[in-house]
Amino acid sequence: MLENLPVLSLIAFAPLIGAIIVLLLPGARSSWLRATAIIFTLIPLVLSLWLFAAYQPAQGGGAYTEHSTWLAIPLNIEAFRGGITSLQLGFDYHLAVDGISMPLLLLTSIVSTMSVLASVHIRKRWKTYYSLFLLLLTGIYGVFLARDLILFFIFFEITLIPMFFLIGIWGYYGREKAATRFLLYNGLGSAAMLMSFLVLIATLGFSMVDETSYMFSGNYDVLLSNLTDPNVMANMDTENARYFGIFLTDNARWAAFILLLVAFGIKVPIFPFHTWMLKVHTEAPPAIVMIHSGILLKMGVYGLIRFAVFLFPEQLHSWTTALAVLGVINILYGAILACVQREFKLVLAYSSISHMGIVLLGIASLEEVGLQGAIYQSVSHGLISALLFLIVGSLYERTNTTQLNELGGLAKAMPFMSGILLVAGLASLGLPGLSGFVGEFLSFLGLFGSMKILTAIGVLGILFAAIYVLRSILNITYGQMPEQFSGMKDARFIEALPMVTLAALIVLLGVYPSILTDLMQNGFAGVLEQLQTRMGG
Amino acid sequence: MDHLQTLTWSDTWYLAPEIVLSAFTILLILLDLFLPSKVNRNVIGWLTLAGLIIASVFVVLLLLSLGSEAEADSAAGSYSLLSGSYRIDDFGNLLKLVFLGASAFIVFSSLGTVREEDVPVKGELYYLILPAVLGAMVMSSSGDLITLFVGLELLSITSYVLVATRKRSRLSSEAAFKYVVTGGVASAFILYGMSFLYGVTGGTNVFVISQGMSAALENYEALLYISFFLMIAGFAVKLALAPFHAWAADVYQGAPTPVTAFLAVIAKGAAFAMLYRIFMNTVFLAFDSDNTMKNDIFLALSVLAAAAMIVGTVGALQQRNVKRLLALSGVANAGILLTPLALSLTEMHASLYSEFLYFLLAYAFMNIGAFSVLTIVTRDSGNEALSGFAGLYHRAPWTAAAMTVLLCSLAGLPVTGGFLGKLFILFGTVQTHTYWLGAVLLLTTVISYAVYFTLIRQMFMRSGAIDSGLLLSIPAAITIWICTIATLVLGLMPVPILEWINDIFSVSTDLFMLQG
């Protein structure tokens, strides 16, 4: 039944439709607005669960592609000699899903649903809030689905604008500064990305439609096939080729690669580009941090894998040590600083940096296991940090503080929430049986084959993780309870529901990892094979 | 060319838009003079609008007839009057359409908002737009240095008067005076540069100059250098390109807001038209691709473009006055608009003109929209400070939303015309391997987020001094919405318009003058 529907477009644009409906509803009816937002967050969830159920790894998701021409901009052809009848700059509307985007798509749909439920704590301007929230979702889904460089870029940029407002209007005291910093850092990343993309389009994107008509295409598949097929330019008229300037020189290749690293490195974030995300973690409303820490950072990981790994495996291969070193710095820097923070949200922020370092190690391994680990760790960290910030949001509602020294003994007043907090904390420190362990294990395992010493140093991060997680969680749940907390109620049903769901998923991924690894089975085979032949030959 | 072609009756058809504008100007001057003072001068505003619309209808008709002629015979598609000193071609017609349309929007949007207390000579404000547009049209349509200069002066001198129409404002008089002085100096520079060109090639007709170029290059290289660089400096002042932009902020601030919008869009576009016409026919056409002078001029133009982007954006960071802020944003945008022209002097690349025209169009919409919002907001708050926008979201959420779209377009965020416009220009820099200019464009774009989002922050995140709803004027509101929707449409569906431009416009018949 669903086979005939444009499922991917529905996933990406259902939230946008929801945003428009929210805008048309009366602003005072908060329950209507909320219900609409929840419905339009559930639609992508249901659809992506269906996709997940129907997904066959062997096909590589080939069955689910949507492809049509979006912009075919005619370029002036007077400049070129010899019978060219048309030259176009073509950007496609091309959505697809494969083993790499599927887990992240699922993550997005789950975390966003939990986040919209957690938005009960939003107290003002519901209409604007929910419409921006839904617009943000369209951007995120688009990023994970888009297979055209410019389409990808547009979705990537679309996430910036709603995030700016969501941080700046509904955040805490330093919200405006955090919003501006978010915008500028990410804008810088996007600028680097756009430059790199345009270089790629102007070179690798060049393709022949037929004998006399050519086009510059932004389609990812075109780039990929042009990249792997060295003979693609062979039958080009060299006189014109000089005019088109389409040869991707080695320097340009390196420049494009480094620009991509910077672009997605800011998003991940890789040390030293991380300062913006600390601000966002502490100043944005918790429901939005769930999205930010749970999904947006993974856009960086996804971008690194989709573009840096797949388009530039050779360049990456010669830089794996550097990337691994950066990963180790991330792990240790985040972990050590997380140990000394006095603000719980900052502990979590630094822990995110540390965990994203593990993802980098997985990527740096350039092994199937490691790359799977990187994705797995992304999904797992997405769920864990979403859960942690869900709890932070509910805690702050009651205690009005997240300073560690002002909290304590909450296990007495709120046994349920404290229990969930402990589960999330244990998952975060990598306890076997919970999802965090699997992701970390796979990433370290992948890297161990090639860089034993770096892996060993990286593993130290897990030690620190145990320290900072237990230190802060025990501080919150045990010890002397300040008097003003004594009458506080435990989680309401609406808060407990997402907590239980997320905790259950964390356990599920911990005990049954093949749910995700099966998806990714064939995802990396192609690129690694290609790397091997090119390295070997 | 031994005998001068004279104007015949049949040529009036080709000059219909210009004739309409002149006729309306004279008519409205007389009307303003004889109309009793108690009659609201909005009548003149509406008639001005009518004149602009009629003229643009004629331009469209000309475009269509040129198109069908070109289909019948591929050599046609342009028409030359008075031995090439006036040319009717698609280059000029497309620009004329932009100028007329933009002026029509500016006049329409100001119909409800220009107040007699501020502009005592309201009638003048409206009807003087007509000769100014006429000047811009002459500049985009002429193939002779003298006619070009006449157009430039017609535009400039009327602009000086327009800036001064806020007669009771000290700022306005100061602005007008500054504008007269700098504008006059700039015109002098341009004319001086032109005189050298005439001296070394023996003609004022651009075709003749283009023919004489190679001989001149051999014998008078130094003089040619002087000529081109004098002209570049003059145009840089007219376009407010850094470091020749110092007048812009003061003049924009002092002028009535509709005039500011006019200066930002039409005056700039016209100067670009003239620059294209002269430089493409002389520098581009006559020089070899590896000529030193051509490379020097390319370097000068691209450095100017980069400087304008950097200075405009960085300067706008500290501005607290919205009009000055938009003036500096105009400096940066002039740099972006100059980029395609500069790039076309390098190796030929795939698009020479459509990226310029597309960005000009997007720029016109976003600027006119933003200035219309500014007009309404300043009318309420009484000043042009940034804080006047505080809490706009609470007072007029839809206007705030429209302004956000327009500002996103100025900042080059998707999905707006400003984004795609910048994207095309950026693609040009990549295609010609001028990566550094592309990098400057991108970096200043990121810095400009800080500029435009300061305004957005005021609108959405601060509470203002006034709580009552914003008093909208209907024409201004309509203009704002048309501009907003057009900005979004340009960002989502640019293909029809680009295809249309590509279909009718050809560099060789419409821009190059290959015969007299």
Automatic annotation (TrEMBL), chain A:
InterPro entries: NADH_Q_OxRdtase_chainM/4, NADH_UbQ_OxRdtase, ND/Mrp_TM. GO terms for cellular component: plasma membrane. GO terms for biological process: ATP synthesis coupled electron transport; electron transport coupled proton transport. One of its GO terms (molecular function) is NADH dehydrogenase (ubiquinone) activity. The keyword Transmembrane helix applies. Keywords: Membrane, Transmembrane, Transmembrane helix. The chain crosses the membrane at residues 6-25, 32-53, 100-122, 129-146, 152-173, 185-209, 254-276, 288-312, 318-340, 347-366, 378-396, 416-438, 444-470, 491-512. Belongs to the complex I subunit 4 family. This is NADH-quinone oxidoreductase subunit M.
From TrEMBL, chain B:
The chain crosses the membrane at residues 12-31, 43-64, 94-113, 125-140, 146-164, 176-198, 222-247, 259-279, 299-318, 325-344, 356-377, 398-415, 435-456, 468-493. It catalyses: a quinone + NADH + 5 H(+)(in) = a quinol + NAD(+) + 4 H(+)(out). It is found in: Cell membrane; Membrane. Pfam families: Proton_antipo_M. Its EC number is 7.1.1.-. Belongs to the complex I subunit 2 family. NDH-1 is composed of 14 different subunits. Subunits NuoA, H, J, K, L, M, N constitute the membrane sector of the complex. This is NADH-quinone oxidoreductase subunit N. It comes from Cohnella luojiensis.
